[in-house]
Amino acid sequence: MRDLDDSFGVGPDAIRLSRNETESLCYKAARGAGLPWGLAEEAAWAAGWLAGHGVDAASALLRRFRDDDVTKALLAVDQAHVRAVGGGRLCPIRIGTALLDRFGADTGPAIDLQLDAAAEPVLLLPFLARISTASRKAIRIDLHGVSLVLAGGEPTDPAAVSRLATIACGSVRIGQAPDIATPARRIAARPATPGPVLRALEALALRTTVPATEASRTGGAGAGISDND
Amino acid sequence: MMPGSAELQAVAAFRRLPSQVMRLSRMGSAHPMRLSFLRILLRRVVREGWVFDRPLWQVDAKGVGRAVYRAMGPERTYSLVAFSHDLPDEMRSDRVIATAWDATFALVDGEPTAEDLDRLAANVPLQEAGRVSPKELSLSRANRSVRLFNHVVGRLAEGHQPDLAEVEAVGYLMRTTAVYGAGKFGAADHEAIACRPEMSAPFQAEMLSVWLTRSFTVDLVNHLARTKGGAQATRLDPALCRRLGVGNSTGLGMAPFLVRHPLLLNNWMAAREEALCRVRSQDSCRDGAPEALRAALKLAQDNAASWRSDHPIQIAKLANLRRDLSLMAAWLENWPDAGLHPWNRLWLWGEANLSEEGQEALLALLLEPHGDLVDDLADWLSADETRAQRIDGAMTIGDLRGLLQRHYDWALKIDFYQSSAQARFWYVSEEKLEPRLGQRGEEPGADLEQPLGIGKLARNLHDAIAGLGDGEPVASFLLRQPDHRMMVRRVQLCAWAPYAEVRDNLLDDAVLPIDLMRCKLAFFGASHFDPRSDKWVRISLFQGEPFPEDLSAGSPC
User: Fold this and answer.
1) pLDDT digits (tens, 9 = 90+) for B176-230
2) Strand, coil or helix: what is A176?
3) B 526-555 residues with CB below 8 A of A?
4) A42, B451: Cβ pair inside 8 Å?
């Protein structure tokens, strides 16, 4: 964990992943960390969205995967106040997808609730952005003095997104914002992911693979005969 | 009735259904056609008058060095940077676990500076072990066809042309073993270039890269022949050049692609089926179309004659194809007559009398004379896959159940207790992350299987919601059972993307991964599909097509 606390520099072996690489690595790592395949897909999509907005989402996801206190308890998202049974931290992927399932239509109730102790709350943003598009309503997020508005799937203030990424856990207020025009989509520079983070995610991803045996090496991929012609 | 619905119903009668089209054996009989990605690229560069040249050739007498090939369109330029290496024979391998190749490539967005070339020289030959930048659009590598390459160099060095039979037997001088685009290894993400008209259809950067690679392969043999034979050496005859494509060697890694990209697969299939539908629904034949069909059939027969494989499955399919093309030629002698919907009568005759191989070949032939009717469907081929991501949580369990029964009836009929129904499992090996197919119960790893057994997952979902009330929202079910999110997403997709799902059980003992691979490769525009096993194929791209330099010189293609 010590490497990940280095918030002043990303280290000499940091890499700027493409969005595709971010999604691919995070998908496999999420599965390796124990998420079901469907949630792993959604975690990967969220990481890709954030990477496209300049946030090193790979690091945020790794912190989430390593956080043993992140609860998997069932929750009722109809309540105005969502918290984990037993007082643990909420998983942003499970909560984000549950909120999108529940509020991501242009009919039905507008989102208006508070999450206690959401881990890596920046990972909620892609899902809330999606809600703002699907519900055609602007959404406001408040936590730890940072305010953010999402309209038409885009943040009004990209700097606020970056500030949110520095918050490890927080109580999140989500509600309606006055309708505004969709902010212009700004293409952010690829964020740098520190080398130790990449290696840790790759190690998680490796948990989804099967160690090779000589038999599988020759038989399983099909090229049992000579390649040369 | 709404106005025009009679017409909509009438046209729908000419459209094939997913239940017929999305079957592995038919997908495994797919042929390249007008909407194949390679064809789309070629039409564009001709229509827009692209210019091609080779601003750099620095290759020594051993064939080691670098080259740059430039493609200049009306608004943008792309450059293929090629590195040629001296690869010892024992290191040559097509497997993803290879570490060195005969030649390595990157397609640059624009023109490479001297610094770019140095950076690429340090990374491209390493392939997956190196990194490229958003200035690069694709990364690829190729190995020589040892048998043909050496034969060609040897003959040209002596001042003779190579043997036509040898050329035809292989069909390419070099074959790519991977062409990576779309953000891999640091390259530009597809979304960065998708708005460009020349990049909006699928895999256009990869197709351009392979087409320019083809020029490189010919330049290399000419160069080596000259260094070997000196003044008596000759250059490869243009007619023989045309007979050569770029090979591609593909293993199981490609097979899961169609399952992992259901919206993309839907759009490819829907575009092709719409094209067939438009042709079939015509009241009569337009002028010149029957002649164009006969000409295309003749080309198809020539192609089938030179198409070789040693694999028993493909040998049988080729026998069917050749026979069916002859049957077509005979039937066409009395076609068209004066009746309505002549194209449809031809099609229905084909469905009744030809093998699947022949039917899918007929589909491609029917599209050939109808460019102005179907070429616009290229716009259907790409997909914003994020549209397929969001689950509709407000949908009821009752509606979900209905969708399952309508689109996954094929899966719900399978007896998964039969050992053959779950005999295989798909997995990724730890070694270089290579996809593999295992036998359940006979080898380890089934607990780590990849989620490609969609039929089984559909059955699991069906069973999980069996006891639930019709009115419950999907959102509350998924809150309790998030394990089913992936399958729910796919089921909901089928409601508006009916060709999204392969309607066969990919865990079955009898599954042939090459069926999935042939389907994807047909959409690429690959010819001469040649399985080396049921999991490994060779194909050729651009065989018979013009070269970029042919277009720049103004000669017709």
Assistant:
1) 989 999 999 999 999 999 999 999 999 999 999 999 999 999 999 999 999 999 9
2) strand
3) 532-536, 538
4) no
Residue ranges in B424-557 assigned as alpha helix (H): 454-464, 474-480, 485-494, 513-524, 548-552
Write down the H helix ranges in B256-378.
257-260, 262-280, 289-306, 312-332, 342-353, 356-367, 371-374
DSSP-derived secondary structure letter, A119: E
Q: What is the mean pLDDT of residues B297-307?
A: 92
* For B480, nearest residue in chain A (alpha carbons): A74
Q: How confident is the model at residue A4 (pLDDT cuts 50, 70, 90)?
A: very low
Taking CA–CA distances from A211, the nearest residue in chain B reads: B430
Interface of A with B in 81-100 (CB under 8 A): 94, 97-98, 100
Kindly state the tokens that stand for B356: 């699947």
- Which residues in chain A have Cβ-Cβ distances shorter than 8 Å to B191? 19, 52
Do A49 and A185 touch, CB atoms closer than 8 A? no
Name the strand (E) or helix (H) holding B59.
Answer: strand B51-59
| Residues 6+ positions from A31 with CB-CB distance below 8 Å | A37, A40, A205, A207, A208
How far does Cα B310 stand from its chain's mean position?
21
Q: Which residues of B touch A217 (CB under 8 A)?
A: 429, 431
Q: What is the rounded CA–CA span in Å between residue A167 and residue A59? A: 12
pLDDT for B365-375, tens place per residue?
999 999 999 99
ipTM comes to: 0.93
Q: B187–A18: do the CB atoms touch at under 8 Å?
A: yes
